[in-house]
Design brief:
It contains 17 helices and 12 strands. By secondary structure, it is α/β, with parallel strands linked by helices. The chain has 2 domains: 30-228 and 378-416, 3-Layer(aba) Sandwich (Rossmann fold), CATH 3.40.50; 258-335, formyl-coa transferase, domain 3 (2-Layer Sandwich). The strands form 3 sheets. Strands 6-5-4-1-2-3-12 form a 7-stranded mixed sheet, sandwiched between helices. The longest helix has 24 residues, at 187-210. It is elongated.
């Protein structure tokens, strides 16, 4: 790989180009992004995919996510590459007067500001809602952090594992295991990131209809309690009851992929007809007359035994035999894919899910497309993931700074241009 290639969007003829058209529904909106790790960057990447001009503000230390996962160059690890495309990086020291002034100039041009700092931290920096509203009354201000400031936990620092624990998620996993456990992906960050992106679009719609900008708070704790308890609130849904909580079917020890004759298979027959097809396929028509299987209510009441029986049946056929027998009947079923197998999955390939393009310094990258398909205003991948400060000079020039002033800011550390040093 040629590490001397320039940081430009000019892609050589034989390379895999970025998309040049921007017909996204958020085209024309500017988002100023002061977030890091996964939650905020995922939310703002989605806004960028949908057409927004996203300016990523990085303080001198840079986004910690730049070091998460495999990387070819410092500051460009895989997790960062996967949630920071379609952005420009403007690196500023907000603790220096000139850096804060430049930040305020960006805010003057913005439609949305989104941050992931605790409220106490943004006040200390002088960039709380009241501060930015005075600079730009039309600004939608979005705060994403662990706990709502209005509650007694509002002072707490939180990351994904903490929120999984606090919100009941770790204990729900623990019901299936020997002790509370975290799920194997960054669940709270990514789920709250989706909520934050939704909040931005909703607030923009409100502003379009009423002319009103507003403050928006997206707390991780509230978000994950909401997500975790949709089904698991169960009996406590009724306000005069104390429980039970927990959706029984999901908490069965036998609810899992089952070993087939040659691998693993996931099968989820739901109604009476589907169960009869499963029994017929396995050569066990006698089970269709078993009272445990004759109705949805009966199966729910005996869920452990039902799923244990299904596990035993799955071992009678190969995975391909099960899929061939059940799919024509519309019975939900799937092979159990590894992440590696998804890279060549025929469905994902056919729908164009994988989008490869050449990054100026990181070589050919495999990227996942925005998963929602818009007929008239499609999402797109137009900008490669930037090095820290890659567009510092570019953005400052757009704000009216001349080259001499920009050089002076960089020399003083008020602005950071790591474009050349990054490669």
């Amino acid at each position: 790989m040629d590490t001397e290639r320039s940081h430009t969007l000019e892609i050589e003829d034989e390379s895999l180009p970025l998309e040049t058209e921007n017909n996204g529904p958020l085209k024309g909106y500017r988002v100023v992004d002061l977030t890091r790790i996964i939650l905020g960057p995922l939310a703002t990447q989605m806004l960028g995919d949908l057409g927004a001009d996203v300016i990523k503000i990085e303080e001198p230390a840079g986004d910690l996510c730049r070091a998460i996962g495999t990387g070819r160059h410092p500051g460009m690890a895989s997790a960062f590459l996967n949630c920071n495309r379609n952005k420009r990086s403007l690196s500023l020291d907000l603790k220096q007067k000139e850096g804060l002034e430049a930040f305020m100039k960006v805010i003057e041009t913005a439609d949305v500001f989104i941050h992931a700092l605790r409220p106490q931290a943004v006040r200390k920096l002088g960039i709380a809602y009241e501060d930015l509203k005075a600079v730009n009354p039309n600004l939608i201000y979005v705060g994403c952090y662990g706990f709502s400031e209005s509650g007694p936990y509002g002072h707490k620092t939180a990351f994904d594992d903490i929120i999984q624990s606090a919100s009941g998620g770790a204990q729900i996993q623990g019901w299936l295991m020997d002790q509370p456990r975290y799920v194997g992906f960054i669940q709270a960050d990514k789920t709250t990131g989706l909520m934050a992106a939704n909040a931005v679009v909703t607030a923009l719609l409100h502003r379009e209809r009423t002319g009103e900008a507003q403050f928006v708070e997206v707390p991780m704790f509230d978000t994950m309690v909401h997500i975790n308890l949709i089904e698991h609130l169960d009996g406590a849904t009724f306000a005069d009851a104390t429980g039970p909580t927990g959706y029984v079917r999901l908490l069965s020890q036998w609810r899992k992929p089952y070993p087939s004759k040659d691998g693993w298979v996931a099968i989820l027959p739901y109604d009476d007809r589907q169960w009869r097809v499963v029994f017929e396929t396995a050569g066990r028509n006698d089970l269709a007359e078993d009272p445990m299987f004759t109705s949805f209510a009966a199966r729910q009441a005996n869920v452990d035994k039902v799923y244990q029986t299904l596990s035993e049946l799955c071992g009678l056929l190969t995975t391909d035999e099960w899929l061939a027998a059940l799919e024509p009947h519309g019975i939900p079923c799937s092979r159990v894919n590894t992440p590696e197998e998804l890279l060549t999955d025929r469905h994902l390939t056919e729908v164009g899910f994988w989008k490869n393009y050449d990054h100026p310094t990181e070589g050919e990258l495999r990227s996942m497309k925005y998963p929602v398909n818009f007929e008239k205003s499609p999402a797109s991948i137009r900008r490669h993931t930037p090095h820290q400060g890659e567009q510092t000079r570019e953005v400052l020039a757009e704000l009216g700074y001349d080259a001499e002033t920009i050089d002076a800011m960089i020399a003083a550390g008020a602005a950071i241009d790591k474009k050349e040093r990054a490669i």
